[in-house]
Structure formats: structure tokens, C-alpha cells
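In response to reviewer comment 3 from the previous cycle, which asked for concrete evidence that the modeling workflow produces usable outputs, we include below a single protein chain processed end to end. The sequence was submitted unchanged, and the resulting C-alpha cells are shown without manual editing.
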Amino acid sequence: FNCVGWTKYNGTVFHDIHQHGSQNLTDIVKNSCNVGVIEVGTRLDEKVFEKSIRRFGFGTLTEINLPGEINGLVRSVKDWSRISLASLSIGQEISVTPLQLIMAVSAIANRGTLMKPMIVKEIVDSMQSKIRIFKPKPVRQVVSVDTALTMTKILEQVVEDGTGTMAKVAGYQIAGKTGTAQKFDFSTGKYSKDKYSSWFVGYVPAENPEISILVLLDEPKGSYYGGTVAAPVFQEIASKVLPYLSIPTN
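The workflow returned the following C-alpha cells.
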């Protein structure tokens, strides 16, 4: 793929931060290249794309045992616009919850298996006897084991020398992804030019994951790129959680 800083799809121009030049698929992900991912996404069949989005759990309740959960927004193909394939490729025309997002990423960490989220592991009485134990429940296989392992290798490169280098933790291999999303402005009906959601989500150790962490900053002031504002928070949390859980270094 070749990124010249912009691309046109069905008459609409999509811009990138800068030219990335010639790239393979790994480069596209680790550089957060909008042009490259649009060129990949627009090659897909619309129905296959929508089915894949939904298989990861987007657009439906996770059924976590907490009140107030919402579905997010995933529209059916029949309601897509002429540029939806391109827009969805870069995370527009869709709304997801942080819980849905970390579940989806954790499915990759879990070799392609989406798990039902839990908030309680066990219930004990005053004598510390276990009254009830909650066991992990798989929802479905989202992608193949091979695909999940390939994706992990790509996400490792994001942290190794891509947009997520500030998430590095000494002694651990991390797989993750930065995100910098324009917020939708309902007053104008367009995406805002100055309001962003900035995030980083990842899991560690990459080859045998023990923890997943998602950091989301809503409308950060000053720098708003996920790699510069959210990734360092991930690093701060992970560097304390890993030794606390006695997770060995590489």
C-alpha cells in the first residue's frame, strides 16, 4: 500500500496526519495510517464487514451484571452511506463502549475467543467460606487462533516501534493499539475539529496474556493523540499491576 497523505473513496477525500509512503499491513496498523486502513477496508464485502464487527460484540449488550449498559451503535448494511466502508475502517459511523472495546481486544489476546465479562469472581461469607463461584464463560470464537496470533504480532509492533512506544514496560512484551477519535458534534451534524477521545488499549505479556488495560481520555487538553496522552497512563498502570500480580518478566 502507498500512503500519499490522503485518499478518495466514492468522491469523498479522507486525510491522514502525514504521508506514510509504502507500507505493508503491519506498517499500516503500527503507524495508525488512515489511508492504508481505508484501502484495506474498502476491499471487503459490506455484509462480511458488518458481520465481523458484530461478531466482536459491538452493537449488542455484553450482559455484564451492572445497570445502565447500552448497546452502542452499529448500523445494518441497508442503512450504510456510500462512504460507510471507508468511514467504518477508521472508526467513524460507529459507537462502542469502553467495555465492548476491551472485550474485543481481549478476544484477540485470548486466541480469538470472546469471553463474557464478569465483575465478581466469588462470594464468601464471614468465615471466608465460598458461597458461590463464578467461572469464565466463552461467548464464541470470533477469529481463528492463527489470525489472533498474527494480530498479536502486529500489535506488538505498535508498541515496539509504532505509535504506542510510550506504553512500553521494561521486561515485558506488550501488544496494543493507540486511538485518536474525532468526537461527533450533534449541534453541527459533523465530526468536531477540536474535540477528541484519546485512548490506548493493550494486553501483557503479549505471548501469554494475563491482563488487559484500556485507558480513555475524553477531550484531553493540549496534545490529544492516544500515543502521547493515553499510552503513558497504560505504562504507569501496567508497571505497577504486573509486579503486584507477580507476573514474571520475559
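The chain is about 30% helix and 25% strand. We consider this sufficient to address the reviewer's concern, and the full set will be provided in the supplementary archive.
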